[in-house]
Write a structure and sequence with these properties.
globular; mainly alpha
Length: 459
């Protein structure tokens, strides 16, 4: 299986470089404009949104949740992709109601440097964790964690992805996303066909995996429904693509990306649901799928993971470049500085990989909790059109960060919530944390509302 995987990486590298134009304009590099200055088409935006959100770690997580928690787990992870619909509302309100050209510009107007600094910090950590997580997936497809093959494969993927990303910026990401998404859809179709023909598979099998309402899968679904309000706003890849085209194209791209991504992630999760019904005692998910679907199908699955990981990496790098140079203003908005920013983020991801560090990898799981300081911003300021005193933003941010840290510590066997509240499972703990964060944040904003018509932020 090693040779086809290696060949896939090489073919992806060659095609990606062939599709990538060498950017000579700042607008093309940071804003994705074509050589004639036109914005991306709706199809390009849809495919780019979907392929960057269905990244390799998401596919594995969806399948694993289906494996352990049945249809509840599959629906829970699929629910996170409702973010495209809430994201469409957020972008439309910021751009066309309030008249701002970026999320940072809106936050600066409402909360000054506190708003942009807090937001940029969370976004930067998310981008770095996405680089790290996708390199891990590629590495584990080639060898055991920490092995020479593991490190070599991850490094090779990093080098060629960085190469064509630095060459073309956001424009190259958009172009290669269309190709990569097309390839992924073909591979997904093959996987679904194999699943339908697998021994023991039936539609009724999905319903048979439903658990009691107290099962962790349904608890996670409740968490997703709470986090999905703020989740899209802290994802710079999604937000960046919301400021590229006209209003109609942007709306339609988000809506189509929503149903398409939810369909893809749910179908992939069904692989895990099926594996859960066929597993023997202690048998791992991938071992079950290999036994029931065959090695050829598993090869297609691994190829799909590689394509997905690479497509996410280039989009992450383009957003990282825009964040550091355009949004944070760390350097002049030149092509050279944008490429240096990409290099720094990729080196950061590789550093954590080489150091065998787990903490940042866990940040992928807690980023939804960290983003929840944005929920009252969305509810009261973006949709409600109100202004609040700056102290409320600080309270909401502190609550969300505290919740994210607490959840991480609880998953690291802290046991504080078990001792105090008597709850055991991590998703039940996460639900309690999310409700608490939202209560504190929204409560603070409600108390800090300024009179209608107020125009200046405090601080």
């Amino acid at each position: 299986m090693m040779t086809p995987l290696l060949l896939t990486l090489c073919v992806l590298a060659v095609i990606s470089f062939l599709l990538t134009p060498r950017q000579r304009t700042v607008d093309g590099f940071y804003a994705g404009q074509s050589a004639d200055g036109s914005a991306p088409s709706m199809v390009t935006l849809v495919f780019s949104q979907v392929t960057t959100w269905i990244f390799a770690r998401s596919l594995l997580t969806a399948a694993i949740l289906g494996f352990y928690y049945g249809i509840g787990g599959a629906l829970a992870y699929t629910a996170y992709y409702l973010s495209f619909f809430t994201g469409a509302v957020i972008v439309d309100q910021i751009r066309f109601r309030h008249g701002f050209s970026s999320v940072q510009a809106f936050l600066a107007d409402r909360f000054g440097s506190s708003g942009t600094t807090a937001y940029n910090l969370v976004v930067a950590l998310r981008l770095l964790s996405e680089v790290f997580a996708n390199l891990i997936v590629i590495g584990t497809l080639f060898g055991a964690e920490g092995s020479s093959l593991y490190l070599l494969a991850a490094s090779a993927a990093a080098v060629f992805t960085l190469g064509y990303s630095m060459l073309g910026g956001l424009q190259s990401s958009l172009r290669t996303d269309v190709f990569q998404m097309s390839v992924f859809l073909v591979m997904l179709a093959v996987l679904v066909f194999a699943l339908v023909g697998a021994p023991g598979w039936s539609i009724s099998l999905i319903g048979d995996t439903a658990r009691p309402v107290s099962d962790p899968g349904w608890i996670l679904l409740m968490v997703a429904m709470l986090q999905v309000i703020s989740y899209p706003m802290h994802d710079p890849v999604m937000m960046d693509r919301g400021f590229l085209a006209d209003r109609r194209t942007t709306w339609k791209s988000f809506l189509h990306a929503g149903w398409l991504s939810m369909s893809c992630i749910f179908l992939f999760a069904l692989l895990g649901v099926y594996a859960g019904t066929q597993a023997g005692d202690g048998e791992a998910m991938l071992a079950v799928l290999t036994r029931t679907l065959g090695e050829t199908t598993m090869l297609i699955l691994n190829l799909a993971l590689i394509v997905s990981a690479v497509s996410t990496l280039d989009s992450t790098l383009s957003s990282a470049s825009k964040l550091a140079i355009k949004d944070m203003g760390l350097a002049a908005p030149t092509l050279f500085n944008g490429r240096i920013a990409m290099l720094v983020f990729m080196l950061g991801g590789l550093a954590f990989l080489l150091l065998d560090t787990k903490e940042l990898y866990a940040a992928v799981a807690i980023s939804g909790t960290a983003s929840m300081f944005l929920t009252p911003v969305i509810v009261f300021c973006i949709i409600g059109g109100r202004r609040v005193s700056l102290w409320a933003f600080h309270v909401a941010f502190a609550a969300a960060m505290s919740g994210a840290v607490l959840y991480y510590l609880e998953t690291s066997n802290l046991g504080f919530m078990t001792q105090v509240l008597g709850i055991e499972h991590k998703y039940t703990k996460l639900l309690v944390i999310c409700v608490s964060v939202l209560t504190v944040g929204n409560g603070a904003f409600a108390l800090a509302l300024k009179p209608k018509g107020a125009v200046a932020h405090t601080g």
